Amino acid sequence: xxxxxVTPELIAIYADESCLGNGREGNNPGxxxxxxxxxxxxxxxxxxxxxxxxxxxxxxxxxALRSAIEGLRLAGLDxxxxxxxxxxxxxxxxxxxTSWVYDWARRGWRRKxxxxxxxALWRELVEAARRHRIAWRWLRGHxxxxxxxxxxMLATRAAARQVGSNGMIDSQFDxxxxxxxxxxxxxxxxxxxxxxxxxKPARELPAVPTESLF
Length: 214
Fold this sequence. Notes:
CATH superfamily: Ribonuclease H-like superfamily/Ribonuclease H
Strand content: 15-25%
CATH architecture: 2-Layer Sandwich
CATH topology: Nucleotidyltransferase, domain 5
Number of domains: 1
Largest sheet: 6 strands, mixed
CATH class: Alpha Beta
Structural class: alpha/beta
Shape: globular
Radius of gyration: 17 Å
Number of helices: 5
Distance between the termini: 32 Å
């Protein structure tokens, strides 16, 4: 049962990541981007907000984690405990948050084979996610899904320009979608807002020891 202070509406976050030259030697610039959809209360199109950020030397996996940390941070800026469907095409992110982190926490934030890649970001993400009720959803990337393609555009643009949005801004999703449809590049309809009646949040996340956050 949700806690009494959980907001009643269900919001959606679509996030993606980019790293230009991922895996090559040297510094590879990366970006993360996301689209936050909030019910408008009118029964029509949701309120949409964008965010993006960049790092000059990073990896795809690192930016996938940062896309989620930033999205959840922004969703809870007003102090609300949110109900969220979080969608990403990163198996690293989705598998980690629905399976791996529980095993890592039981082992004192280590894997069977040793240290965890990006452990500080994993801990930060678990701490950010613990206060919300979240259903983690994976979808295949680069398959024409409008919200995913838009998040990918935000991430790759941030990586190329090395700029951040400094918080949420009014979304340009509708204009972008109209232009992509005119070019025949996106033909699938956007996902509707998720249905609260069928919302199934993931199990409660493990606690993160305070000392491991620093």
